[in-house]
Each structure stands twice: as structure tokens, then as C-alpha cells.
Amino acid sequence: MFLSDHSLKFKALTEDDISTFETSLQASGLSSSSINRCISALKSFYKYAALEHDVINPMQSIERRKLAQKLPKALTISEITAMIDSAKRVGDIISLRDHAILELLYGTGARVSEVVGINLNDVSVPEDMLNASVTVKLRGKGSKERIVPIGSFAFSALQEYLVRTRPSLVEKRAGSSVETALFLNNRGTRLSRVSAWQIVSDAADAAEKKVAILFLISALGAVLLIYSYIFVREDVWFFIPVMGDTNAKQFGIGMGMAISLFFIGMGAIQWARTLMPDNEVVAQRHEFRSEDADREDFVATVKERAGVAGLGRRPFIKRSLGLALGLAGLSPLVLLRDLGPLPKNELSKTSWKAGTRLVTDPGDRPIRPSDLEVGSVAQILPELAPGQKRTLEDIGKDAVLLIRVRPAEFNLDAERLSWTHEGIIAFSKICSHMGCAVALYEQQTKHLLCPCHQSTFDVTRAAKVIFGPAARPLPQLAITVDSEGYLVAQQGFTEPVGPSFWERSS
Q1: InterPro entries in the record, alphabetically (predicted)?
Q2: Which among 408, 412, 398 is positioned nearest to 374, based on CA atoms?
Q3: Which of 152, 262, 399, 473 could form an S-S bond across to 429 if both were Cys, CB 3.0 to 4.6 Å?
Q4: Structure letter (DSSP) for residue 291
Q5: H-type helices in 278-391, by residue range?
């Protein structure tokens, strides 16, 4: 393509033509590595052509592009802390050596080869430690020596190793010669650079393995749930102290779900505490809905934090988390058969009907408009017939909030305005998102708030959703007064109350 566009023949190309070709590749968006592959292919081609067909080679002085060197990914302070802490294991005195090595590496900035090359007499402890610091002599490349101070954490770890671990390692040494090395292996000789690197590598993986193990336990919990639901019979019982006789199927389902969810949470907490940065961020309070710029910043921050969290370079955590979340998400699917039978009309009906008096909850006392002041709120239920008992199922559908505002503050159409009485308006207390109780009322803003998921409804605009996950306004109950002046319902709810369900028409 390049040759035809520039009316050139491959036998007559010059170095300038090759440079022009290289520039065109860069302009087309190819990376430096892709351009280098093209240059290498041309070099091989013209080398062959020069040998076999006596073609002039224009590639002799053309050099490959230098690729940009990527900086290594640095560990965060949290990752370093977790790495050092993981090296010290309870009941394992060898781990004291590993802990001292990591503290010394971090505290001095030395190379692994320099740390394993330290001798006992290279550590200098001053008599007056209040005015002078402990130092260590390091031998770098070319046998160049330098004196480096040791911090308190590294010195404490080194002291513990010298007192508790090194004497037991010295006893394992064969022969009578004295080993001068500071750090010894299990045979009582100087620790090799390869062994020290393995200590660093194991410590780096330890924190990741702890998180991954928690996620794997979560996955086992999900397997227990699914197994119990499918294979354990409902008539199997066993005895548990304190709890008594327990149904095996129910116990397995409950315990499996508890393990699955609990260890996902524990894994996430352990991940955040040990492997994620712990920088504190302060943000000012603002209106419920964020501005578009803030929402874009949030998405960018999430992507950045995901990169800092190291998902890309921690495949073990990523795979175990995916397994745990996948099985935890699969668990509800096996329970789908318990969704039947269809609910018919039970979810669409309430106890409210025309002429039903509004009574207080608790107290079952009828209400007159004069009982409510502007800005006040009352929880209401329908009045029961004599001898009738109220069930929890009825309360879950019939609960109503009665709110009084100034009539001029309403922004309603004519029909909805006729459902109010002297500034008193009634809405279902059951949130249209997840069925929670809409329990908070802000007098200044005239907003109803669901405290569970922060859905917010505007009372003056027929409980229109102004924030949160709710999909529709709270159902309004039309009210008026009866001949005795008590508040009553004009009719029942004109739509189902509570959250969405499959059979709902709207």
C-alpha cells in the first residue's frame, strides 16, 4: 500500500523512504512495539534480498525504536505493613528471622543481597541510644560499603531474632567453625540470596492468600446451601445442644447462606484493611442528587481505586472473589421454585374502602382535622369492625402517614387535590422501592424519607420521587370527613401499595 501510494518500487527504496514509511505507521496509530516488528520484518526481507538477488539494502543503518521503560508498581504503606506482619507467625521461631529480614529491608532500603551479606560485627549498637542510633554496615556492588541507621521497629525485630532464633540455628551447624553471618538458614549457615527472595515472595503472597481463603470459604458456604436445598430431605432432624432438635435441611440452608455472606464481607474487610490504601477523604455535605461533574468524578475515582487495589496484579484474589460472588449469586436461583404459587390479588388489596375511619396507631382513636396541626404527622390504620383482630399482614399493607401542610403549599392536579382535606394528605407508609417503612418527615422541605435506602418523596407534589431508588410515588389515599367530623377514606387505594411485583399492572 505504501509503495503504490508513493509510486515506489521495493528494489529502489532509500533510507529516507524507510523513514517516511515509519512516520506513516506512527501516524496510523501503531504503537512503538508494532512499528519495531515491521522494521524487523523489513530488515530480514532486505537482508535476504541483498544476499540472493543483489538488491541494495536500505535497512542497514535503520535502528529499532527504543521502547519506553515502565516504572515498577510500588506497594502502598498498607501493603507493606500487611506484608511485614504476615511474616511473624505464632509459635514459629523461624518466622522471627523472616520478620527481621523484612523490617531491615524496609527500614534501610537495602537490597536482598546486601541484607544476607551482613555479618554480626556489622551491626553497631551505641552505648547511649538516646543520642545515637543503631547502624548497620552494608556491602553493595563492587564491595562498596556504607553505614545505614536502623529504625526502632527493625532493631526490635532484629533483637528478637538474635535472642530467640539465631542460637537454635547455630546449634544445627556441622563442624566447630563459627558462623559470622547475621542471618542463618535451617542448617546454621549463611542464608542465600535465593532463600531470602523466597521469604520476601512468600510474605508478599501471604496477605493475598488470607483474603482469597476467606472468599473460598464463602464459596463453600454457597455450596452447602445448594446441597442442603437439593439433596437433604425435609424429614431429617438432629440434636444441637442449647438449640435442641433442629431440621437438617433448614439448618444447612441457613448456615450455608450465613457462611457465604459472612465470609464475603470478612474477605472484603480484610482486603480493605491490609491491601488497600487507607487515605482519609473529607467531603462537604450537599444535596441528595450529585451534580453531573461529581458523578463523573465518582466513576473516575472508582476506576482509579480499582487500579490501586491491585485487581490486575492479584489474580488469586480476583478469581476467588469471582467464585465466591458467583456461587453466592447462584444460591437464590435454586430457591426459585418456592416463589409459587401466584399471589392472585392478595398483594393488590388492602383493608381500606369507602367510609373507613382513620384511627391512630397505636391507640385506635378516630381523628378529626382539628387534631392535626400544620407540620404534624400521624401514623394511621383503618378502623376495625367490632370483634375483628388486626393481623401483621394487614398492618404491613394498611399503614398510612397523615400529614398536614398549608393548602397553598400543594402543587397537585384537581383530582389529587380533591383527595385532601383542609391541607391534610394521606400516603401509604410502605415504600414503593423495597417495602420499608417511610418513617422520616422533614418539616422544612416537606419531604418524606425512607431511612433504609434514602428514597425521598415530595409531599406537596403527590409524593413524587425526587431522590433514591424508588421507581414511583407513594400511593395516595383519598380522604374526607364523615357526618361526625372524623376523617374517613373516600375509597380504597387506587393502586397496589408497596414495592413492585411481577403481577403488578403498573
Answers
A1: CB, DNA_brk_join_enz, Integrase-like_cat_sf, Integrase_catalytic, Integrase_recombinase_N, Integrase_SAM-like_N, QcrA_N, Rieske_2Fe-2S
A2: 408
A3: 399
A4: P
A5: 292-308, 315-330
Residue 31 belongs to a domain = yes
CA gap 145, 476 in Å, rounded: 83
Which residue(s) pair with 146 in the sheet?
138
End-to-end CA distance of the chain: 60
445 in a structural domain: yes
Full domain range(s) for residue 454 = 358-489
Cβ neighbours for 475, distance < 8 A, ≥ 6 positions apart = 427, 428, 432, 493, 494, 495, 496, 497
Contact between 157 and 100 under an 8 Å Cβ cutoff? The reply is yes
- The CB density around residue 438, as the number of other CB atoms within 10 Å, is 25
Give the closest residue to 317 by CA, choosing from 79, 2, 51. 79
Contact assessment for residue 502 and residue 347, using Cβ atoms and an 8 Å cutoff: no
What is the number of other CB atoms lying within 10 angstroms of the CB of residue 321? 23
**148 domain-assigned:** yes
C-alpha 181/C-alpha 78 separation (Å) is 31
Q: Note whether 123 and 43 are same-domain residues.
A: no
Cell numbers for 271, please give them: 482486603
Q: Check pLDDT > 80 for residue 262.
A: yes
- Tell me the per-residue pLDDT of 48-64, one tens digit each, with 9 for 90 and over: 888 877 777 878 777 77
Q: Are residue 322 and residue 233 in the same domain, yes or no? A: yes
The residue whose grid cell reads 439433596 is 231
| Alpha-carbon span 435 to 397, nearest angstrom | 9
The more confident residue out of 94 and 300 is 94
Number of domains observed in the structure of the chain:
4
Same domain, 41 and 156: no
Q: Beta strand pairing status for 447-449 and 440-442?
A: antiparallel
